[in-house]
Amino acid sequence: MIAVSADGTQLWISNRYGGTVSVINARTGRRIALIRTGGRPHGLAFFPQPGRLSLGHNGIYR
Questions:
Q1: How far apart are CA 38 and CA 9, in angstroms?
Q2: Does 60 map to a domain?
Q3: In a structure prediction context, what are the per-residue pLDDT tens digits for the chain, which is 62 residues long?
Q4: pTM to 2 decimals?
């Protein structure tokens, strides 16, 4: 799954089988962050408020 930041500068991509989320600079295509989430992240959605992201996942039951 891919989510685009409100300002269009970043792509957030869930790496379902790697347990990570990659943050990509939309202009250059370079990865600027790799966030370890555990489980299997799959759904991404930005909230209207700046800086808030919702992430769905499978595999962590706590």
A1: 25
A2: no
A3: 888 888 899 999 999 888 899 999 999 999 999 999 878 888 888 877 777 778 777 765 55
A4: 0.79
